[in-house]
Amino acid sequence: MTRGVFILGLNHRTAPVAVRERLAYGEDEIVAALGRLKTAAQAMGEVAILSTCNRVELIAVAADTLCAMDDLTAFLARDRAVEPALFEPALYRLNGDEAIRHLFRVGASLDSMVVGEPQILGQVKLAYAQAAEAGTVGVVLHRAFHKAFGVAKRVRRATLIGHGAVSVSSAAVGLARQIFDALNDKTVMLLGAGKMAELTARQLARQGVESLLITNRTFDRAVELARDLGGTAVPWDHFRPYLRIADVVIGSVATTRPLLGAEDFEGILRERRYRPMFLIDLGVPRNFHEGLNSLNNVYLYDIDDLGAVVLDSQGERQREAQRAEAIVELEVESFQRWLGGLELVPAIKDIRSGIERMRDAELQRHRAWLAGLEPDSRAHIESLTHGLVNKIFHQVLTELRRAGRGVDGLYAAEVARRLLGAELVAEGAPLDDDDPFGDDEDESGI
């Protein structure tokens, strides 16, 4: 039965952060969620979850993709305790070529808020690793993800899409410089020590910020980063009193609800004599309540706000992205040829087996005569007949390649199977993760 790849998801273009944060999964939640999904939707052949600050996507394989999409929508609503009406209008449902193209574009950072940013490839690799751990990756998603890794590598090598300093972190630093006359006398506080927060802190340090406070649930990580950046580590349970001296607060904590709201800052602002505070919210779900925007001298920017700032600064990367899109299209065609070839794998195995059985039967029929030959002569006959089998099999493959990988190819394979007396492969027999025609590059080592 034909297996189709599809994607159900939403991202920064289709849904605001207020919706994305309701569906987002923490890194430590995904393996368990895949286990629940595997139990709830047993007809789902393979599935992975990609959840970042900018997207929540389910990449899956099923025989009936339309029905499977409905199952995944219902699962999301149930698993995240969110009414379908809240997120269904923002969902995209991609099938076949569209789904594969989207996965390759995401991995190559062509669908990112900041085109060319490097973090997304690591997040895609993590999604694959988590699905493998949960046992929800099979032959098709294994190939699709490793192809996506290969596409990203090829795009980075062949284009300049990753060059330049356009990023969410650089946008945050640019805004800080607009809000404050100078940064060298300002204090920056990191809530959480994630990669994006670290990148932002490093850029602020390069702009002259000398006072840096870092707090994290894992205190050792805060100490490590503080040592690296020349800052001061603050215990997680006692970070709130330090907010009164912080001019810039960067939130990147994994949380299910805002850590800080307007009521937390009213007293802080009085103690600061209402000097401006700049809050950078890199969390999804968000770290700071949106009500903070109503306070005087508090400047709050979340991940969507920062994304809007960088849109005008990506001209060169967009030009390089056009070259990258051409690479993606070639790889989509390559993957779909391989996927179509999977339907021929059982027939090709049967044909090979049928030819081998003919050879074995003939050798068995002449076993008495062969037994009288010298060992070297018997080995020569074994080699000769084995070579003949390979030549016949090669000719069959050549004709199947000429017939193509659609209905004509399946028909030709069935004719060859019957003419050669090949038996049918048992239903559900495992297939090798190979291209039966051997024309695809193996990306599994990337």
Explain what you see.
- The protein has 446 residues and is of the alpha/beta class.
- It is built from 17 helices and 10 strands.
- It has helices at residues 17-23, 30-40, 65-79, 84-87, 97-107, 119-134, 139-158, 168-179, 195-206, 219-229, 262-271, 303-310, 315-342, 345-365, 367-371, 375-403, 407-419; strands at 4-11, 46-51, 55-62, 92-95, 187-191, 211-216, 232-235, 248-251, 277-281, 298-301.
- The strands form 2 sheets. Strands 7-6-5-8-9-10 form a 6-stranded parallel β-sheet. Strands 2-3-1-4 form a 4-stranded antiparallel β-sheet, with helices on both faces.
- A hairpin with a 3-residue loop joins strand 2 and strand 3.
- The longest helix has 29 residues, at 375-403.
- It is elongated, with a radius of gyration of 29 Å.
- Residues 423-446 have low confidence and may be disordered.
Short account of what is shown:
The chain is of the alpha/beta class and 446 residues long. Helices cover 52% and strands 12% of the residues. Residues 423-446 have low confidence and may be disordered.
Task: Provide tags for this entry.
disordered C terminus; alpha/beta; 446 residues; elongated; 6-stranded parallel β-sheet; 4-stranded antiparallel β-sheet
What is the topology?
Layout: E1 4-11, H1 17-23, H2 30-40, E2 46-51, E3 55-62, H3 65-79, H4 84-87, E4 92-95, H5 97-107, H6 119-134, H7 139-158, H8 168-179, E5 187-191, H9 195-206, E6 211-216, H10 219-229, E7 232-235, E8 248-251, H11 262-271, E9 277-281, E10 298-301, H12 303-310, H13 315-342, H14 345-365, H15 367-371, H16 375-403, H17 407-419
Parallel strand pairs: 5-6, 5-8, 6-7, 8-9, 9-10
Antiparallel strand pairs: 1-3, 1-4, 2-3
